[in-house]
Amino acid sequence: MNIQIGTGDPKPFAVPRRDVRVPIEVGIHLIAPGAGSGKESTFTQDVSARGAKVLSAKRWKRNQRLTITALRGGFQSLARVAYCKPVPGTGFAVGLELLNPTGKWIVARADANEMPLSGGAAVAPPAPSVRIPR
Fold it and tell me: Which domains does the chain have, with CATH numbers?
C-alpha cells in the first residue's frame, strides 16, 4: 500500500495584522536574562500594541525571551523574538512580540526645539506620550 500524505505545493495564505504599526523611533534597552546573555541599547523602527520592530547589532535567537525597556517614559515588557533578519550594512531587524507590556511609549516631537536651562545647558521639551491603537 502506497500512501502519500502532504504531497503537493503548500498553499500560501496571508493573515492580516490585527494591530496598527506606528513608525516611531524610540530609544530602548534590550536585556536577555542570565549572566552574559546580552544587553544592548538601540532603537525601534515601529511599534504596535502587541509588538515592536527594532534594529540590533546582535543576532538574537528566535523565541528567545528579552526584556525591552524604553529609555524615556515608563514602558517595559517581557518580549519574545519572533524573527531576526540580517539587514546589510546595519545589523539585524528584530521582530518582538510584547508579552506583558506596561507603561506608555514616549517619543520626542519632530518639531521640538531645544529649551535653554540656566547654566547654558539645553534639553528638549518634554515629549508627549503616544497611544498605540489596539
Answer: 18-101 (2.40.10.220)
